[in-house]
Amino acid sequence: MRLQQLLAGVPHTGGPQDCEITGITSDSRQVEPGMLFVCIQGARADGHAHAPAAVKAGAAAVVCQRDLGLPCQVLCPDTRLAYGLLCANWYGNPARRLRLIGVTGTNGKTSVTCMVKQVLESAGHKAGLIGTIHNEIDDLVLPAKYTTPDPLALHSMFHRMVGAGCEFVVMECSSHALDQQRLAGLHFETGVFTNLTQDHLDYHHTMENYFLAKKSLFDMCKTAVLNLDDAYGRRLAQELNIPRLTFSIGDDRADYTAKDLRPTAGSTRFMLVGKGQIARVELPIPGEFSVSNAMAAAAACLSVGLTVEQAARGLSGCRGVAGRIEVLPTGTPYTVIRDYAHTPDGLEKILEAMRPFTKGRLLVLFGCAGNRDPSKRGHMGEIAARLADGIVLTSDNPRDEDEMTIIHQALEGVRQHPDTPCQVIPNRYDAIEWALDHAQPGDTLVLAGKGHEDYQVLHGETICFDERQVVAQLLEAQKKRREEEQSHGADAVTGDR
Which InterPro entries did the record assign (predicted)? Predict the structure, then answer.
């Protein structure tokens, strides 16, 4: 592609003579002859410092935010914005041929996007998905590195979705991606807001900054779908100047409301009511917060033209999401749940959801992530101690932080409820083994924090760690130990050697 074609619609001044560009990158290590290098200033590194190395490697042009004195430089007021627009141009602006639905919020993004895609498909529409667990191009499943990919990967994905005949794309829009303008130049038919609770303050510093990052999605949206049960959702309903649909569990002021909730251990029945319409939903996922996610998905689908009946039918056929209130197969007289709850609000919701269906004790195993907002650790400890009957406090991706420092910060919250037993086992594998060995019939054991993740980050090293596999291995080893103990006991009685 010619440089001037690539720069179409990108605010800039200067630049070398028009030339053929062979590729785009913001990583100087990936530069090959003829490529366009975009200087991005990040938290840890500034791409401007690597521009000379990029030119030496053969970059035909360098997009920069300040004058570097390079003959091939293109000056842009915001290189993050420019990078997004350049990547869109490189792939021929495929997003313009797709109907985009963006979902943002602290909790529920993955569940809502998966529900929306399944409802759209049940109504006969081809859809793609971009999210935390994986990406989907119709039926093709691809691994995901980030909740919201960088612009080059994102537009490459859009290009493939157009080629596969997708009509819709539903995607998670993280606050980091919004703040870093990874979605620059996109236009969403619908933006969905789930909720906002404490998270990512290591990056945003204040809840107001966090909220404003989320709010920026709606500058790119035709319609907003907002949760009236959340204080920030109500604030958005007052502040946004675009058409909006609201949803709620029980608040009749919302456009669409969930009525007559009938929860069971594995599902929730409710009536989807709004605008003179009503339909029964038999959601095969437990928990009141799952109903909130379903209402968000329903409203999103209604906003793009589906009927209430189509939304209800699609939700009733939804499959659960890996690592979200996932009941692990154990064959034991107690229940083991793995869930991605890694924030105070997420932990509180999963424990509250499991309490009504727990005949014995409600146990929780959790940790707090390293190199992330430390102020939430004590809150998570307090919530666990207040809502659970027993705690196993362990590690959850400590990264390069000292895991015991993290654990002690969580223990400050646990100590507010001294009657709740708490076992501290830093090694997560050992912690799960201890929890399984001490679970009793009727108990519910919640493994919180990892969810779908199949790795642990310890001391800067990433190791394989899939809790579904770990539980299966530990239970199999536990079964063999018991069989050996029974065999030895029989030998002692009979005198066999």
Answer: Folylpolyglutamate_synth_CS, Mur-like_cat_sf, Mur_ligase_C, Mur_ligase_C_dom_sf, Mur_ligase_cen, Mur_ligase_N, MurE/MurF_N, UDP-N-AcMur-Glu-dNH2Pim_ligase
